[in-house]
Amino acid sequence: MSKIIYTMTDEAPALATVSLLPIIKAFSKSSGVKFEIRDISLSSRILSEFNDILGDKIKYENDLEFLGKLVKDKNAKIIKLPNISASIPQLKRAINELQDQGFTIPDYPEKTVTNDELMIRTIYDKIKGSAVNPILREGNSDRRVPKAVKNYIKSNPHQLGKWTKDSRTHVSSMTKGDFRNNEISLTSDRQQLLKICHYDEKGRKTILKENISVQQGEIIDCSFMSILELQNFINYQIKDCKKNNMLLSLHLKASMMKVSDPIIFGHVLKVYFKNFIQNNHKILAEINVDFNSGMSALFEKIDNLPTKIKSKLINDINSEIDNGPDIAMVNSENNITNFHIPSDVIIDASMPAMIKSSGKMWDKNGNLRDTKAIIPDSSYASIYQATIDFCKANGRFEPSTMGTVQNVGLMAKKAEEYGSHDKTFEIQENGKVCVETDDEKVLFMHEVMKGDIWRMCLVKDEAIKDWIKLAVERAKSTKFPTVFWLDENRSHDQELIKKVKSELEKFDTKNLNLQILSPYKATLFSMDEIKKGNNVISVSGNVLRDYLTDLFPILELGTSAKMLSIVPLMNGGKLFETGAGGSAPKHVQQLISENHLRWDSLGEFLAISVALENIGNKNLKCKVISKALSRAVEKLLLKEKSPSRKVGEIDNRGSHFYLALYWAEFLSKQDDNRELKKEFTQVYEDLNKNEESIMNEINSFQGIKVDLGGYYNTECEKTKKIMRPSAIFNEIIDNI
Prior knowledge:
Shape: globular
Structural class: alpha/beta
Strand content: 15-25%
Number of strands: 24
């Protein structure tokens, strides 16, 4: 019996799993493949940390911890769906929901005075942000558009917005004082223990973190963002935006960069609303407003105040907005701005979406307008400016003719480019931060001021070498130009470039087109190639991997959720990721209000097919079901049975039915395995003759509000009833 671990995650993919997994289990059962669920959802991760205080409630196994060990097993096969990388507001809402459901877990401590509060805060801080991916990604990433999807898009291209040369949209980033410009790096010459120390202006020493184990060959980089420079930058950009009547938008990754980016987000709000804050500082201090959590958290605090005070504060906020530049909107109809919730606007999705729409975003009146896209840290902001420059000069892309950009991403061994959460600090006093060896030698030193954000990142030598090896393998197998996105003027990249050049000498690279280009130049090169219909491989670090595997697919396919993502684990196992489309909270909101789930499970279909194919190398029966699934996916696309956005039309559940129908059809018509042919001939006949009845059952429930019994922790039976609404379909599947 072969085993594939299937992850239960959050929001739309979790709901889709309730519908899809019974189908997958049923179709693969006779081939000796078992699918086992492991729950790594936000709610499960929270509950598993508090088993000791849950009383009589069911004990929650720490499935993330289990998977963290499994990824080092050479036989591991894991299908990983998108999960919530929780911001503090999301974490608090999940905690409140679980408490309302009767789980006796503690509140998230706003302030930590006692040791107990500090302990609780430490536990919750482990859960928030990108807590899952660094643990599971014990290998580097190979992301590409599947051939079937690319062929479908060429025949059925989506529409991109038209660019004009007079577009005023642009990216604004810091030119000094940010992480890129303050970065210093080196490659460790030995295995050693390091500590991070802060010295105040009187020389008093505070150890921020100690016993940091570093291996020989590991790249260490340290940097900080000057809050004074950030504030000056934001202040100038706001004035410039107002002066030129531009739409103001902010693009961060507060979900992943869970320490640094919420702080940056908060400073942007504090500069924008500085008059409001000055005029109301006493009441804001009394209600403990945290601008890092966005305007939504501010409104929640204000809502509990007496009517007179509440009205004054809201009037003052509106006055500030009226007098400032217009803010880009997440939802114009509901007056949800770009400033409402840090996790609402995630740069790797928000910037490509803006570029897809001719470089425009929505204003408060529901109009698309040119925007000033503020990306404070300049490390990778240039890729978006390069894309804008290219589109202004060359016009929009044509999905029917454009090439593709594959990606080899450095992420193995927790490659710390996301802000290294346990080594990122908001500085409490003026002074300096030093990184010291165990024999008191100072490796790095930065002069810092109160409020600055300081961080250290580590990337292991073995992860880098595996990344370079994977890039060469992909270059050889495809013959595509292969570009390492590295900036010779950035300290971290200088160390990587040395390793890339050294490692490439160990391979036969004759007849391969291998290049090292800065992100800006690499973007222009890639854009030029795909505009001509050619293909390129981008080889990038962890952050750029995320950015690029959204940017190019959104232009090529209209979405990043249709990517095939394979992670060859360094010890021999395989992790199959189901696309880069996030967990789609808006999809859940639509399901709750209209019982229509527009989540497209194509990413799951592709990952399952490849996982089964991998097992099929030793299991011929499994190879047959994998091949049939691939053909079913292609037919599903051609027959346009993917979910519609509109209620009353086919949704996720209907799409799953057609996958089962076509899968059974191809299994019944193949001649490679008689047992499977016999088994699925009847299944196909039953599904085919009941197609109309099944779809009527599925669609008849649309258009009404539904109750999942929770959002972060849905009630099992209620969710199953909603996601498996057809009794006829369920009976056929459950009896396979």
